[in-house]
Each structure stands twice: as structure tokens, then as C-alpha cells.
Amino acid sequence: MERAVQRAMERAGHTTVLFDDRRSARLVGHRLTQLRIRRLARRFAPDFVFLSKCLRLREETVSEVIRGRPNAMWYHDPQWYADLHHPEVAHIAAIGRLSETFFVTGFVPEWKALGLPAAFLPAAGAREIVPGTADPRMAARVAFIGAGYDPTRAEFLRTLSRAVPTRVYGPGWETWQHDLTWSGGPVEGAAFATACASADFSLGILPARAGGATTYASDRMWMVILAGGLYLGPDAPGIRDMLRDAEHCFWYRDVDDCIARVQALMGDPGLRARVRAQGEAFVRAHHTYDARVPFLLERRGWENPLG
User: Fold this and answer.
1) Counting beta carbons within 10 angstroms of the beta carbon of residue 303, is it exposed (0 to 12), middle (13 to 18) or buried (19 or more)?
2) Considering only CA atoms, which of 74, 9, 51, 76 is closest in space to residue 219?
3) What is the chain's mean pLDDT, rounded?
């Protein structure tokens, strides 16, 4: 995400420098990382500071780097708002409180209640992602690309696969590998696009931790559509206003409705092809990192192109 934001800002005409605090901490240690970013900030003298999780930066370091400079943070995993007991989430919240604007991809009221300057900005996909070419060896009625850390996701896929041929990609599915058609690991880059193009539907499933979400959706949704996938995702108030059903993608209410939609839509290949193409064109026009840059730099809430 950070490198995609950097590329989008440079395409918009800005000069940028990217500091990877986690890589720096692995190479030179925690203390020297604080010195390196302070020195870089003095030398580069940015007009704007974009913050990610800053997991290896101390609060006082971030405070010094952003002092007197417009800045914004963008947190893509907002469903963790209730887990401030977790050290990583607590650190992210502490950094977010230092920022001028704490952009999140969902659960804005919950983050505001914790004292953060939260504003909504949906996730996005990189403009560089292009539709893949279908590969018969990866053909599937339904494909799901994501990590196997959530038992409710596994149960959804187990139920779905009993009714509809389903292929799963991603790490962490060992526990359920005998119940699912699992690739054995992640697919990235060109392989990701091939997996999306080779499936009749590319599935989205919210984890249990994101229960009650309205506008939240993983960046997988945007990446799948840019990669040429026909997205079938969980319906929720708010998210259905960002993409229109049967125009840009398809929504389902629960696993039974998901099965019914797949079975019904398999009889209409013309509609599926039209929605796949319209969805890709719409997301490319409105939901890439390039489209998010103005909102980041101006620290203003997102404006839905659908009104």
C-alpha cells in the first residue's frame, strides 16, 4: 500500500521519499531507526507527511517528524478498534492521535469515540494491476484469495464448496485443507490476476472481527476487480452504495444467498461478462490510489462518485 501511494503521488507530480521503518529496524535496530528518520526528515524537509502504521517508530519520533507539517495517516485494518489491549493496535492508535487526520476504511464512529481524528477513506487498488489471462489449470466456479486466520471464513467456504466448486488461495488454510480445494499458498502479482481471470466469480468474505461493518471492505475488492475478476461480495449498507449490484459487481446476504446467486448467474454469461467489464472500468476510474491522493493531501473526507 505504501509504495502504491508513493507511485500515485509521484504520478501527480510530487517528489517523494519512502522510509520503511520495519526494514530499517531489522537492519540497524530500533534506536538507530529513530535517528535515521529524524535525519531524513531534516534533509528532505517535506511539505506533507504521509503516515502508515509506524510500528517501529516511537511516538516522540513521529511527533518530531510531523511537527509544523501537514500530515495524514491511513489505516486499512480498522476492525481492530476494540483491541487496544493489543500492543500493535495500541501503538497505531497512539500514532493516529498525533496525526491531523486519521483516515480509516470503516468504523469511523468507533475510532472517533477513542479520541482519534477519524475520517472515512476507502481502500484502493494499484493502477498497475491489469486484467489477467485465464488459465485452464486455475479454472474455478468461485475463487477466494485471502488468509485462513478466521474459522468463520473457513466454515463459509466449506458450506459454499459443498454446493459450488470453489478454489482457495492464500496462506494459513492447513487446518481446513482436507475440506477445501486449496492451492497451498498465496498468489501474488501476475498469478493473482490469473486466478481472478480464471474464475467465474472472485469472492469477498468479511472476517468475524468486521461484523457490523457498513462501509468497510478489504482492498482485495478493488484489486480483484482491477485484475479482471467478477467480484461477489458481502452486502452491507454503505458498501452497496460504492459499487452497484449487477452493474459493477454482485452482492450476497449470506452463504445461502451466495450459493443461489452463483447458480442463477451461471445461466447468464452475457450479464457476467458485462458486469466484469463495467466493474473494471469503474474501479480504474474512481478507486485507484491515484484517485485517493487528493483526499490524502487535502485531509478531507471521501466523496462518492456515485453520489
Assistant:
1) exposed
2) 76
3) 96
- Helix ranges (H only) for the chain are 2-11, 21-28, 30-44, 59-66, 87-98, 108-113, 151-163, 190-198, 219-226, 255-265, 269-286, 289-298
State how far the Cα of 178 lies from the Cα of 169, in Å rounded to an integer.
14
Q: Give 141's pLDDT tier (boundaries 50, 70, 90).
A: very high
Alpha carbons 96 and 109: distance in angstroms, whole number: 14
pLDDT tens by residue, 61-97: 999 999 999 999 999 999 999 999 999 999 999 999 9
Instruction: Name the band, by pLDDT with cuts 50, 70 and 90, for residue 56.
Output: very high
Number of C-beta neighbours around residue 119 at 10 A: 19
Q: CA-to-CA distance for 288 and 127, rounded, in angstroms?
A: 6
CA distances from 106 to 131, 302, 306 (A): 27, 12, 18
The yes-or-no verdict on residue 301 having pLDDT over 90 is no
Domain extents for the chain? 2-120, 136-286
CA nearest to 74, candidates 95, 91, 46, 88: 95
**Whole-angstrom distance, CA of residue 114 vs CA of residue 292:** 25
Is-above-0.70 flag for pTM? yes
Pick the CATH number of 136-286 from 3.40.1260.10, 3.30.70.260, 3.40.50.2000, 3.30.420.10: 3.40.50.2000
